[in-house]
Amino acid sequence: MKKVKFIYNPFSGEAVITKNLDTIIGKYQAKGYTIVPFRISTEQNLEDAFLDIDSSYHHILGAGGDGTINQIINIMKKKNLDIPLAILPVGTANDFAKYIGMPADIGSACDKILAGKIQEIDLGKANDKYFINVFSFGLFTDVSHKTPTHLKNTIGKLAYYLNGIKELPSFKKLDIKVTSDEFFYEGNALIFFTFNGRTAGNINISYKSEINDGLLDVIIVKGENIRSTLSSLLAFLKLEHLEKPKDIIHFTTSDFTVEYSDSSLESDIDGEVGPTSPIHISCIENGLKMIY
Prior knowledge:
Elements: E1 2-8, H1 21-30, E2 33-39, E3 57-64, H2 66-78, E4 85-89, H3 95-99, H4 106-115, E5 118-126, E6 129-131, E7 134-138, H5 139-146, H6 149-155, H7 157-167, E8 174-180, E9 184-189, E10 191-195, E11 199-200, E12 203-204, E13 216-221, H8 226-238, E14 248-253, E15 255-260, E16 267-269, E17 272-273, E18 279-291
Parallel strand pairs: 1-2, 1-3, 3-4
Antiparallel strand pairs: 5-6, 5-18, 7-10, 7-16, 8-9, 8-15, 10-13, 11-12, 13-14, 15-18, 16-17
């Protein structure tokens, strides 16, 4: 029987994964797979899940939110594991899983994976950390870190909008410099995104992005003043912000550098803490095998 390393986070989202373990194992066994589970906990290093992975394993099945999947991918790349990854979306946002069409229902998600194909997708890299969905800093990252999980679970993307508007008057604009072959910008930024996927916090921000074009989509909200920023947020709601970019910069690139002067500023990489300035960001074309 083919083996599958099943890495799951029992604390992701509302702990839905623990109620579906028998469903997952049953569906995989019915297709001739042997599930080898690893439960993520504070008592054990996640890297231990990869100690026995060899050619007898068909793929890794990761169950968790965006942050859990990010950790799995970074360990895979660190260990040079060229094995396909499949995702069960059981976190709060599950942005990338939704982008590739993974159903929220665990049983249906298993069915899709088991009937799916191995596909190569692009992967982002910020300094020495990889990301599958988005790298960001600025207001959105600050709001995401401050928004309580229960609000994200109950009212979804509306929680980000409400908290974002609340934080606007006190949030300090950033001085940034972006350098690439395609584009140069030096000036203000309220929000900075680099997308491989399309959504962040379930908000469809980078709706033109593709995961197999060898490019990353960079979106900068300049935030010149409160009026223009509120206008930009309204454009986000209407999905017009890339069509009528009054206060927004959007370009695509495979390689660039971004710098900012605030040494205390946290960046975010798929829900995990990211690197600090200066940051070299690149697209690794066909950098990851996935099943969906």
